[in-house]
Amino acid sequence: MPHPDFGFDRGDVVLITGAASGIGRQLVLRAVELGLRVSAWDLTEAGLLDVAAQARDAGGEVMTYVADVSDHAATAVGFERTLAELGPIRYLANNAGPSSAAPLEFEDAIRICIGSVRAMTEAWAATGLPEGAAMVATSSVAGNRIGTESDWYSASKAALMGYVRHLAAHRAASFRSNAVAPGMTDTPRLAGFAGSEIGQRALARNPLGRMATADDIAWAELFLLSPLASYINGVLLPVDGGWTVTQ
Ligand SMILES: NC(=O)c1ccc[n+]([C@@H]2O[C@H](COP(=O)([O-])OP(=O)(O)OC[C@H]3O[C@@H](n4cnc5c(N)ncnc54)[C@H](O)[C@@H]3O)[C@@H](O)[C@H]2O)c1
What pLDDT score was predicted for residue 195? Predict the structure, then answer.
C-alpha cells in the first residue's frame, strides 16, 4: 500500500526500544521505509540482528544495542554509542515493556515499566535535542480501561499516560510527547490468542472484529513522532478497533 513520508527529514535518527519483536520490530522496518536511521534496542540479541538485517536489505541504516532499558548504566552507554555512530537523536519510541503475564512483583514492575521510560526520556533529553524532537510511548488500553488480571500492568500503563501528560505540559520547549494505547495486538506474546475461546469472546466485542497488527500500532506511533503531527502534544491515542468506546 503506498503511503506518505510523514514529513520526516531523510537521515533523521529514531531510537526504538523493544525493537526485536512485535510492535518494536515493525517500528524499525517502517521507520527505515520513511527514511529514518534507527538505533534499535532490546534485551535479546537474535531478534535485533534479524530485524536489522531485514532493514538493511531494504536499504536502511540500523545500529543495534542489547540492553535492559531499566538498567541505567547500560542505557547510558547506549546513548553514547548512538550519538557516536548516528549523531543527534531527534525521536524516541519508548516501546519496550514486559508481558502482562510476566511473574513480576508490583514494585519491581513499576520500576521496570515506568521507571525505565522516565530514565530513558531524561537521558535522551540530556543528549541535547534537535529542534522538532518528539517522544512516543507504547501504553495500552489496559491503562485507560482495565486489561488483564495483572494489577501492575494496568497501574504502570496508566502511570505512563500520566507521565506523558506531564511531559507534554512541562517539557514542550524541548520535545513533544504522546502515547499510543494499543488494544489486543497480534504479536508473539499473544500468539494463538485470537483462536482461543477468551480471544474469540474479546474479538466479538471489538467493533472491527479483529486484533491490531503490529503495523497498525507502528504507523500510529510514527505519525505521532512525525513533523505532520507537530501540533499534537499530550495525546493518548487508542488504536484498538473502537474497543475503548464500547466499554
Ligand atoms: N501485544 C499487545 O496486545 C499489546 C497491547 C497493548 C500494549 N502493548 C505494549 O506494546 C509494547 C510492545 O509489546 P509487543 O506486543 O510488541 O511484545 P513483544 O513481546 O513482541 O516485544 C516486546 C519486546 O520488548 C523487549 N523488552 C521487554 N522488556 C525489555 C526491557 N526491559 N529492556 C529492553 N527490551 C525489553 C522484548 O525482549 C521484546 O523483544 C509493550 O510495551 C506492551 O506492553 C502490547
Answer: 86
Under 8 Å CB-to-CB from 157, ≥6 apart: which residues?
113, 139, 140, 142, 143, 147, 181
Q: What is the C-alpha separation between 40 and 36, in angstroms, rounded?
A: 12
Could you tell me whether strands 134-138 and 176-182 are parallel, antiparallel, or unpaired per DSSP bridges? Answer: parallel
69-80 per-position pLDDT tens digit: 999 999 999 999
Tell whether ligand 1 has an atom less than 6 A from the beta carbon of residue 46.
Answer: no
- Cα–Cα distance between 25 and 50 in angstroms, integer? 10
Of these residues, 65, 91, 153, 163, which one is catalytic?
153
Identify which of 138, 161, 210 to mutate to test ligand 1's pocket (most ligand atoms within 8 A of the CB).
Answer: 138
Q: Are 123 and 75 in contact (CB under 8 A)?
A: yes
User: Of 176, 179, 159, 158, which is closest to residue 167 (Cα–Cα)?
Assistant: 176
pLDDT digits (tens, 9 = 90+) for 135-163: 999 999 998 888 778 999 999 999 999 99
Ligand 1 binding pocket includes 188 (Cβ within 6 Å): yes
Whether CATH 3.20.20.330 fits 13-236 = no
Q: Which residues pair with 179 in a beta bridge?
A: 137, 236
| Residue % of the chain over a pLDDT of 70 | 99
